[in-house]
Specification:
This protein has a single domain (9-237), classed as NAD(P)-binding Rossmann-like Domain (Rossmann fold). 47% of the residues lie in helices and 13% in strands. It is built from eight helices and seven strands. The chain has helices spanning 18-29, 46-52, 66-75, 99-127, 149-170, 187-191, 202-214, 223-240, and strands at 9-13, 34-39, 56-60, 81-84, 132-136, 175-179, 218-219. The chain has a seven-stranded parallel beta sheet, with helices on both faces. The two termini are 24 Å apart. The protein binds NADP nicotinamide-adenine-dinucleotide phosphate.
C-alpha cells in the first residue's frame, strides 16, 4: 500500500532555496498538513509563510551548530517526514593545498550533519509512528569527479551512513530514502560549473515524493542519474539492499 503524504507533518532542511524549496512545495501540493522549513536565516523563508500561511513554520537551525539541531527536533516534536537536504560543495581536487580543509568542512556539514540529524530526529519519528527520513546524497556518492573530489568523498560517506540508517531505523518503522540527483539547476551546480547540463529541481522533488509513496530506498532524479541508476540497479539489489548478514 502507498504511503500517504496527505495530512502528514514534514520538516525540510535548507527549504529556503534550491532543491529544498522545491521539496517543500511538492510536499504541500501532496497536502502535507504542515512543513517546517529548517533554515539558517529565518528571514530567507519569511516569503514561504506569506504564501502558505500556517502550513509553513520556520525553524532556525545550522548544521554547523549541533545544539540548534537538537533544538529543532524539540520544536518539531510532531514531525513524521524529515528531509535532510541542506548541504555544501567546495571545489577541491585531491592535490589542491586546501583539499583537507575543504574536505573537513564538507564532512562536518554533509556527513556529520546527517548523523546529528538522524540522532536528533530518530526518537521523534519513532514517537510519531515511524514515518520517513530522506537524505539528499548525490551521483557523486557513487562516482568521484576530480574537480570537486572532496565533496564526492563526503557524499560517499553520507551514502554509506544512509545505508546503515536504513537498517537501524527499519526496526522502529522509519522508511529511509537515499536520493542521488545528477546536476540540478541551483546555486550549488553553478558553483561547480555544472549549469550547462543542470536540470530542474522539480525532478528531485517528484522523485522524492515517488520514493516516499512507494517506500523505495534509492531515488535517481534527472537523466544522468537515471542512466547511472540503471547501471547500478543490479549491484543495489544484490549487494546494497540485500541482507548479507542473514538477519
Ligand atoms: N544541485 C545539484 O546539482 C545537486 C546534485 C546532487 C545532490 N545535491 C544535493 O542536494 C542538496 C541541496 O542542494 P542544492 O543544489 O539545493 O544546494 P544550494 O542551492 O547550494 O542550497 C543549499 C541549501 O543548504 C543550506 N545550508 C548550507 N549550509 C548549511 C548549514 N550549515 N546549516 C543549514 N543549512 C545550510 C543553504 O542555506 P543558506 O541559504 O542559508 O545558505 C541552502 O538552503 C545538497 O545536499 C546537495 O549536496 C545537489
Amino acid at each position: 500500500m502507498k504511503y500517504d503524504i496527505k495530512g502528514k507533518t514534514a520538516l525540510v532542511t535548507g527549504a529556503n532555496r534550491g532543491i529544498g524549496l522545491e521539496v517543500l512545495e511538492a510536499l504541500l501540493r501532496k497536502e502535507a498538513a504542515k512543513v517546517y522549513a529548517a533554515v539558517r536565516n529565518p528571514a530567507s523563508a519569511e516569503g514561504l509563510v506569506e504564501v502558505h500561511g500556517g502550513k509553513v513554520e520556520v525553524i532556525q537551525f545550522d548544521l554547523e551548530h549541533p545544539d540548534t539541531i537538537l533544538a529543532a527536533a524539540k520544536a518539531a516534536a510532531d514531525v513524521e517526514i524529515v528531509v535532510n537536504n541542506a548541504g555544501v560543495l567546495r571545489t577541491a581536487a585531491p592535490l589542491d593545498k586546501h583539499a583537507i580543509d575543504e574536505f573537513k568542512f564538507e564532512l562536518e556539514i554533509n556527513t556529520f550533519g546527517l548523523i546529528r540529524m538522524a540522532q536528533a530526529f530518530a526518537p521523534v519519528l519513532a514517537g510519531n509512528g515511524g514515518g520517513a527520513f530522506v537524505q539528499l546524497n548525490s551521483l557523486a556518492s557513487m562516482k568521484s569527479f576530480a574537480g570537486f573530489a572532496t565533496y564526492c568523498a563526503s557524499k560517499a560517506a553520507a551514502y554509506s551512513m544512509t545505508q546503515a540508517l536504513r537498517d537501524v531505523l527499519k526496526e522502529q518503522g522509519t522508511h529511509v530514502v537515499s536520493v542521488h540527483p545528477g546536476p540540478i539547476d541551483t546555486q550549488m551546480a553553478a558553483s561547480a560549473g555544472l549549469d550547462d547540463m543542470a536540470e530542474p529541481a522539480s525532478l528531485v522533488a517528484d522523485s522524492i515524493i515517488e520514493a516516499l509513496e512507494n517506500r523505495t530506498f534509492h531515488a535517481f532524479p534527472g537523466s544522468m542519474a537515471q542512466q547511472i541508476g540503471a547501471a547500478y540497479q543490479s549491484f543495489a539489489e544484490s549487494v546494497v539492499e540485500a541482507d548479507l548478514m542473514g538477519e
